[in-house]
Request: fold
Amino acid sequence: MRTEEFLQNLYEEKLKHKEHRMSFVVQKLLFTIGLFGLGSITIPTINSDLLLYLIPFVALAYDLYIYAEDFKIKRIGIFIRNQSLTASADEQHWEQWVAQRREPLAATASFLLTLVALCAAALAIYFKISDHIGLVIWLPISLAFTVALFYFGRKQSLNLKEDSSRQTLRTQNYADILIVCGQGTWQDGSFYTEFADRDVYLKHLSTVKQIVQEFAYTHVVCSGGYTQSRTPQLSEARSMQKFWIETNNMPVPTQHVFLDELSLDSAENIYLGLMTARTNLGKTPIRRVGICAAWKFKKARFNALAKELGILEHFYFHGLASADEAEAGERAAQEESAQFQKISVSNDYFLLTDEWARKRQHRLQGREYDHRLDEPRQQFPEFFGVLDTIKQNGMSEETRQVLQHSFAQEIIQHASPDIASHQLEL
Reply:
């Protein structure tokens, strides 16, 4: 609620600054025209000629206020576009779109108006006053002040844009992705899951922001499909985003949060999660990949899959809770160990057997299972083609190399050597 109020106040403040800027522009026109009119006529008891000398300085005084209001408007727009953690994707996209399509004369309109007023005043002084010594001194001083103030206003706006660009430069050159594995759905204050460890799962979501800040991830993928019968229309991925918005704990700006609403197990968390990132990132290469899981004892499973995909050297596991924090206690870790041993023996790190397919189908709620991966299959045909081959013929060293190559080319699109060598201290 406070987040919505803050954004509403921010938009109202931006609107007020726009109104103030327009008011100053109108006042500037009225005062300069008024001074020009009074200075052009002859008043017997008053030396109205002096009013002509005041015209550019009055205009410059208003320019100070106009530039100040313009700076405040841009500052709010840049915050919403690049820094806000709770503004909607449409709002941020609109700010980005508008920033790239500003009126070409908007930045110089006030300066040109002051320049026109200065030239008009100079002509009036030249023809009305016979002694031009004052004009010779006044004109270059007025012109210097006009240009200096315009340069100062432009410099402030450019500095604001550059500061924002520096903060997003790393995102533009490469992406460091944190995939957050879903454990259920959050709705109306309740966490729906197959297990009893709701406290662990809530803490898991709450610590994502801390992990992102500590390890400098640029983007977050919420990974989890429609798994809960009590919330069949809400995916695990979307419920994570809802939770962060409700608790004012968004880990990155909203436009850097991607939703993978297809994944139904740990293997899909990684490769479908990264496919979701690739779809949203365009051509931006992926540098680091992190996985955020609720349980520490899942590390071996995720590391093994990262090795199969050829990304282990820039893969990082973040686990939250140990087995003694689970409702099942040490039995949870023992079951995971037995399951991982079975996966290792069968060399089925991608969980492609019919047994795992049945588990995924059982987990999926309110959606058709058979065609759920049609879209990613069309987008990444080479990778899924290799998976199909592995399912039919098993994994061989040659097949593994083809798989890793297709994954690197279609999905990771590795950063250039100069970027890749710029490793963060973890």
